[in-house]
Specification:
The structure holds two protein chains of two kinds. Chain A contains 41 helices and 15 strands. Chain A is an alpha+beta fold. In chain A, the strands form three sheets. In chain A, strands 10, 11, 12, 13, 14 and 15 form a six-stranded antiparallel β-sheet that branches. In chain A, strands 1-2-3-7-5 form a five-stranded antiparallel β-sheet. A four-stranded antiparallel β-sheet of chain A has the order 6-4-8-9, with no helix packed on it. In chain A, strand 1 and strand 2 form a beta hairpin. By secondary structure, chain B is of the alpha+beta class. In chain B, strands 8, 9, 11, 13, 16, 18, 19, 21, 23 and 24 form a ten-stranded mixed β-sheet that branches. A five-stranded antiparallel β-sheet of chain B has the order 2-1-5-4-3, with helices on both faces. Classes of the chains: A alpha+beta, B alpha+beta. Chains A and B meet through helix 2, helix 4, helix 6, helix 8 and helix 10 of A and strand 2, strand 4, helix 2, helix 4 and strand 7 of B. Chain A: One of its GO terms (biological process) is intracellular protein transport.
Chain lengths: 986, 414
């Protein structure tokens, strides 16, 4: 066994014997020997050595119990099965046994290896194995099955139909692990069967955020295609989209201003781009940076505005590799416009001093491009370039000459002095391209420099034989043009040049000389063409258009290899165009019961994933982002928006977020959405609303009840009425009440202990009489529990019609909310006669935050944008507790959860009663009985999350006091301190 | 989807290890890779993707290795690069350092990893923590953990396994920031930003719930507190484990941390940073054959603070020779392969001013940008870290602030 330790590189003659050792080891009984042998064999394979003669010996070990050996045997099999098909079949039975192994890891690896064996004979076995694995208990095995599908498909495309069945089955899988792999299989096997996605579309959106990063990329890609075939172009149909942008951005935690127009969407996109820019900034990996910049360069051509504010991000640093520098330059050039050109040119000036010659050349070209694109700076640029002509570096000069030539072509008559200056350069400059450019310029505009041109030709004729080919060609051109315009002076010179060219080594030059001689020198034989010689040579040439090399790239999908190469790579698929008419959205409907709740509660998450911003790795992030940016480049706001739009299209009003509490059953949430659609604040279960007529009647009666309610004091009565009526129906209200004992308790208690007298309720203006054209609306927080949903804050809205005409059908529309917030709209007020007032109650779940709820208040003629923002004190409801309970709870909410402020009490509120009054007015809290008269304690719970809010005001001498707030929600706590402080000191 | 085969080559282009995933690209194609690369190198235009016929090579270079993915399909380019870098990351986790020797010493593991990381050209689980649970160098370990693997892979909390125990529960928080500043010749800051990340090293038992508070401006303006010491984070990205909904509603960062080291979040702050070290330079030309560069560096930060390991790089023309240096502090040396003078100052106290004179023979004088690298700390800070676990153990959070050498460039006049 000593031979084992021999070094791996062995002269060829020994190799046969060495393989004998290996065989011996493989045949032995000891697993350790087998393992050692297998390790050596795998090492041989890895180095590309042939180990195929060991096949029989290795294959025997496939049944080995030792997993480590088994794994290595698998590795071996995958490598050699193709070459030794017959022998490979021997191992099949072992795999079949492996597929039934109780260990999921073994089942999976058996399937993986089996599917990796590219032997057509076993196709039926593979098919069977895949089908079986697709319904395996373990998601890990199912994932492997999904991976096996494209393998089998590439081996035998005829299996497609059967494979599609498996894909269909796996698409319905609910585990995140499987989702990525099956979508990959779908993309490989049957990307055209978009109909398979319909049913799973929403589920995939939901799962997206939890899928591992590689899977996310694939799914996003597929969803892009899906959206492009199934949704309308959001460019045309923006109105519905903005809500989604807004909620999307809440979802990805980017702060964003709320606004009502399309500008929002642009802001949104810009935010994404900032993320993109981080990749430009941080040169983490230059390859990734390279790809990012390529894509940015393409995008800047069509949508310059998006990147313009971030111009500085593309400033070049001397440490960037040349490639990156040139790409950044490209972006800067694309971004240049009238306003920023001076900044950019100043930047460019710095770059010219760089030592990287390629980069300097690119910079000069960039200046040229800026000059052609922006007329105002053309002269400045030209002057700058002319200055460069005196640069010491020849390359710089040469490049400048070439660019100046292009610029001069646009308005040669103005710049004859520059041409003169350049003519002088011929003495010094050696770079062929530059010499050629100068000569061409002089020839082309010889009438502007009539004196110099012949002289230049004279000099050139002298050095003709030593010039490079391109220069020679231009000398011939110059000679021809001068001959045509100024034959007196140049006739001889031209002939001399042409003679020289006639005997040149290069046949191009000889050809040209011959051709030109025939054309310009009139002889008897010369044909009709010579008459037109002048027209031929001195025709007005169109000025060159300096274009970005990225101009033609935008038809490739961003982020793809094809885009990077600017050529179609194999298998490139164009993105389909948006459909003319939206296909039936109902195809995405799934059995309501299982999906609705998930959709409602997870919406914000999947949108987050769609943006891919929660990328758990920096690297993968960029690949995801480009799938998004793809859409921008086509002038589309976002497929993601569409994805969401479609996602929620089934839930009619945009923001009917469904109750997310655990206790709500599917039917509960279902009724939630049903409800907001009908606009009533009652909770009708689906069963209850079987007959619509009944429902309507119901509504009417309730409205009648509501109308006479005018004063807030009566509000509680109304609720009692409501409670009664809903309980009588044995429906939803009862269901909700029983579901939330906490709430019930509170509601009872608040009936007893509400301290705040209704007169103290502060009213806020929602709509002013003047802006509302006679309709004024105020709202106040009634501090009553909102019966239909315990998590909502009741907002009492008070309408007054001050105008002389009746207002009809007062209702709300187009509710815009931060994610997580919900609104229960007030029932439509059908008629508000002139001079009358009416009151309605709506519920808002603020999610324990002081975010505003924006909506439109609509009458039969007008719409008003209004918003409600709650003071923090209204986000809680009183909670009764004893002093001991209070102290105990307070003890648990120390540290960061405790906020203490010292204050001096206002003269007016230095007694206990006043303090209680002030605090309870500022916040909806109940007083906690207390032994000491120096301390006042209050307790409450936040409305949405039922977090405790404990307030203590300890008074000291001379109005000094200390205010302590304990609350788990720090934000609430801090804000509450501020509010109470204000109340007590003023 | 992305790659047909993956190769690891040494610098000469010899294949060290390869794995053919799809079999639709001839494995011999790789022989053309190095010649093509050489050709590009000669032309001075190295491109991360090389095409030969229908085959595309996407490559990255790591130490003395080339990692190449071949494909003939239209794949997602950045995904491939991401995968290649991930490969480097995983190998590095396994072998400490990824280079020729480590590949040769670990053929079997590398092969197994290649097998596990990608299937049919499609990347799979690439989290090295999870991989290490079931692909181990020692076969014996496998028996114990083998059934556990998929549970971690399939868990709802996929980044943390259950039943982790530590004797001493600790969390280390590193706030690592790098400042990038670009200053033009007349001394105005052209662009400046801070790129930072919060790294965690968690050694906590069970499934703890952590909450992190930062001096985030949005939060503070929400609560109306003093805005003096807050920052506006422009571009925040979180680890998968952070609950976005919480961040969304009240901007607390709450999460169940992955065990061991992880990057919790990264952000970018676009603030106006005053250059902490001010550089002035004067170039004197004595005749055609001699030049003297004088560089003055001044620390513009508090007297109490000290910047450590300051490096100032002065680019010089490539044809410079016979360098002579004189410095008031630190040491300067000429690095001909990078064409620069490297002036290192071990510790640079605030308010101090230092000088360096460099003398060269015969350069065609040209100057580019000065770069400064240093370590300092700044104004982003962690306010609190709360750890909540069912068992309610005591845990210690440790916070450390590091400012790394950002890219700090000052342009000078030639």
């Amino acid at each position: 066994m000593k031979e084992e330790t021999r070094p791996c590189v062995i002269p060829g003659c020994f190799s046969a014997r060495r393989h004998d050792d290996l065989k011996e080891m493989l045949d032995s009984n000891k697993d350790s020997l087998k393992l050692e042998a297998m390790k050596r064999i795998v090492a041989m394979i890895a180095r590309g050595k042939n180990a195929s003669d060991l096949f029989p010996a290795v294959v025997k070990n496939v049944a080995c119990k030792n997993i480590e050996v088994k794994k290595l045997v698998y590795v071996y099999l995958v490598r050699y099965a193709e070459e030794q098909q017959d022998l490979a079949l021997l191992s099949i039975s072992t795999f079949q046994r492996g597929l039934k192994d109780p260990n999921q890891l073994i089942r999976a690896s058996a399937l993986r290896v089996l599917s990796s064996i590219r032997v057509t004979i076993i196709v039926p076995i593979m098919m069977l194995a895949i089908k079986e694995a697709a319904s395996d208990m373990s998601p890990y095995v199912r994932k492997t099955a999904a991976h096996a599908i494209p393998k089998l498909y590439s081996l035998d495309p005829e299996q497609k139909d059967q494979l599609i069945e498996v894909i269909e089955k796996l698409l319905a899988d609910k585990t995140t692990l499987v989702a990525g792999s099956v979508v990959m299989a779908f993309e490989e096997v049957c990307p055209e069967r978009i109909d398979l996605i319909h049913k799973n579309y929403r589920k995939l959106c939901n799962l997206l955020i939890d899928v591992e990063e590689w899977g996310q990329v694939v799914i996003i890609n597929m969803l892009t295609r899906y959206a492009r075939t199934q949704f309308l172009n959001p460019n045309i149909n923006v109105s519905r989209v903005q809500n989604w942008v807004y909620s999307l951005f809440r979802a990805v935690s980017l702060p964003i201003e709320q606004s009502h127009d399309a500008a929002l969407i642009y802001t949104a996109i810009r935010k994404i781009l900032i993320c993109c820019l981080t990749h430009v900034h941080v040169s983490c990996f230059s390859e990734v940076q390279y790809v990012v910049l390529q894509n940015v360069a393409t995008m800047t051509i069509k949508r310059r505005g998006m990147f313009e504010p971030y111009l500085k991000s593309f400033y070049i640093r001397s440490t960037d590799p040349t490639q990156i520098k040139i790409l950044k330059l490209e972006v800067l050039t694309n971004l240049a416009n009238e306003t920023n050109i001076s900044t950019i040119l100043r930047e460019f000036q710095t770059y010219i001093k760089s030592m990287d010659k390629d980069f300097v050349a690119a910079t000069i070209q960039a200046i040229g491009r800026c000059a052609t694109n922006i007329g105002e700076v053309r002269d400045t640029c030209l002057n700058g370039l002319v200055q460069l002509l005196s640069n010491r570096d020849e390359l710089v000069v040469a490049e400048s000459v070439v660019v100046i030539k292009k610029l001069l072509q646009m308005q040669p008559e103005k710049h004859s002095d520059i041409i003169k200056h350049m003519a002088k350069l011929t003495d010094n400059i050696q770079v062929p391209m530059a010499r050629a450019s100068i000569l061409w310029l002089i020839g082309e505009y010889c009438e502007h420099v009539p004196k110099i041109a012949p002289d230049v030709l004279r000099k050139m004729a002298k050095s003709f034989t030593n010039e490079e080919d391109i220069v020679k060609l231009q000398i011939i051109n110059l000679a021809a043009k001068l001959y045509l315009t100024n034959s007196k002076q140049t006739k001889l010179l031209t002939q001399y040049v042409l003679n020289l060219a006639k005997y040149d080594q290069n046949y191009d030059i000889r050809d040209r000389a011959r051709f030109i001689r025939q054309l310009i020198v009139p002889t008897e034989k010369s044909g009709a063409l010579s008459k037109y010689a002048k027209k031929l040579f001195l025709a007005l040439k169109p000025a060159p258009v300096l274009e970005s090399p990225f101009k033609d790239r935008d038809h490739f999908q961003l982020g793809s290899l094809s885009h990077l190469l600017n050529a179609k790579a194999g298998g490139y698929q164009e993105l389909p165009d948006w459909p003319e008419a939206a296909p039936d959205p109902s195809v995405r409907n799934v059995e309501v019961k299982e999906s609705v709740r998930a959709v409602g509660t997870v919406t914000y998450r999947d949108t987050g994933a769609l943006w891919g911003l929660q990328g758990n790795s920096d690297l993968c992030f960029s690949s995801k982002i480009f799938t998004f940016l793809e859409e921008i480049s086509y002038g589309i706001y976002f497929r993601a928006l569409q994805v969401c739009g479609g996602l929620c299209s089934a839930l009619t009003p945009a923001h009917c977020h469904l109750p997310s509490s655990e206790s709500d059953s599917a039917s509960g949430s279902e009724s939630g959405s049903e409800d907001s659609r009908s606009g009533s604040e009652s909770d009708e279960s689906k069963e209850a609303s079987e007959s619509e007529e009944e429902e309507e009647e119901d509504l009417k009666t309730r409205k009648k009840k509501e109308k006479p309610l005018k004063k807030p004091v009566q509000e509680s009565e109304r609720y009692i009425v409501l409670i009664n009526s809903s309980q009588q129906r044995e429906g939803e209200a009862g269901f909700l009440c029983t579901n939330d004992p906490q709430f019930r308790m509170n509601s009872c208690r608040s009936a007893e202990t509400t301290i705040a007298p209704s007169s103290a309720l502060k009213s806020y203006e929602l709509l002013h009489r003047i802006t509302g054209e006679g309709l004024s609306v105020e709202y106040c927080f009634s501090r009553q529990p909102f019966i239909p949903d315990a998590n909502m804050v009741a907002v009492q809205v008070h309408f007054t019609n001050n105008s002389t005409s009746d207002t009809k059908s007062l209702h709300m529309e187009d509710v815009k909310l931060q994610s997580g917030m919900r609104v229960k709209e007030f029932p439509e007020i059908e008629l508000l006669p002139a001079g009358e007032t009416a009151t309605a109650v709506m519920g808002i779940d603020f999610c324990d935050s002081t975010q505003t709820a924006n909506f439109q208040l609509c009458t039969h003629t007008r719409k008003f944008f209004v918003s409600i923002q709650p003071p923090v004190g209204e986000l809680m409801r009183p909670f009764f507790m004893t002093e001991n309970e209070f102290k105990k709870e307070q003890g648990q909410l120390m540290g960061m959860n405790e906020i203490t402020e010292k204050l001096t009490l206002d003269v007016k509120c230095r007694n206990e009663h006043a303090i209680v009054q002030k605090v309870t007015t500022a916040a909806n809290l109940s007083r906690v009985p207390c032994g000491s008269d120096k301390e006042c304690r209050f307790a409450g719970r936040t409305v949405t999350s039922s977090s405790l809010v404990l307030v203590t005001v300890a008074t000291k001498d001379q109005g000094a006091a200390q205010l302590t707030v304990n609350c788990e929600k720090m934000v609430i706590g801090t804000m509450l301190v501020k509010d109470i402080l204000l109340a007590l000191t003023q | 989807m992305s790659a047909s085969a993956i190769f690891v080559l040494d610098l000469k282009g010899k294949v060290l290890i390869c794995r053919n995933y799809k079999g639709d690209v001839d494995m011999a194609e790789i022989d053309h890779f190095i010649p093509l690369l050489m050709q590009q190198e000669e032309e001075g235009m190295i491109c991360p993707v090389i095409t030969r016929g229908t085959v595309h090579f996407m490559w990255i270079k790591h130490s003395n290795l080339y990692l190449v993915a071949t494909t003939n399909k239209n794949s997602n380019a950045s995904l491939v690069y991401s995968f290649l870098y991930k490969l480097v990351e995983v190998f590095t986790e396994y072998f400490k350092e990824l280079e020729e020797e480590s590949i040769q010493d670990n053929f079997v593991v590398v092969y197994e990893l290649l097998d596990e990381l990608m299937d049919f050209g499609f990347p799979q689980t690439t989290d090295s923590k999870i991989l290490q649970e079931y692909i181990t160098q020692e076969g014996t370990k496998l028996e114990v953990t083998k059934t556990k693997v998929p549970t971690t892979v399939t868990n709802a909390v996929s980044w943390r396994s259950e039943g982790i125990k530590y004797k001493k529960n600790e969390v280390f928080i590193d706030v690592i920031e790098s400042i990038n500043v670009l200053v033009n010749a007349n001394g105005s800051v052209m662009s400046s930003d801070i790129v930072g990340s919060i790294k965690l090293k968690t050694m906590l038992s069970g499934m703890p719930e952590l909450r992190l508070g930062l001096n985030d401006r949005v939060l503070f303006s929400l609560t109306g507190r003093d805005k003096g010491k807050t920052v506006m984070m422009e571009d925040v990205k979180f680890h998968q484990c952070v609950r976005l909904s919480r961040f969304d509603s009240d901007r607390t960062i709450s999460f169940i941390p992955p065990d061991g080291e992880s990057e919790l979040m990264s952000y970018r702050i676009n603030t106006h940073v005053k250059p902490l070290i001010w550089i002035e330079s004067v170039i004197e030309k004595f005749s055609h054959s001699r030049v003297e560069i004088m560089v003055k560096a001044k620390g513009q930060f508090k007297k109490q603070s000290v910047a450590n390991n300051v490096e100032i790089r002065v680019p010089v023309p490539s044809d410079a020779d016979s360098p002579k240096f004189k410095t008031s502090t630190g040491s300067a040396k000429y690095v001909p392969e990078k064409d620069l003078v490297l002036w290192t100052i071990k510790s640079f106290p605030g308010g101090k001013e230092f000088l360096m004179r460099a003398h060269f023979g015969l350069p065609s004088v040209e100057k580019d940008e000065l770069e400064v690298f240093f370590l300092m700390s700044i104004d982003f800070f962690v306010r609190y870290m709360k750890i909540i676990e069912k068992s309610g153990y005591q845990a210690l959070p440790w916070v450390r602030y590091i400012t790394q050498s950002g890219d700090y460039q000052l342009r000078t006049n030639a």
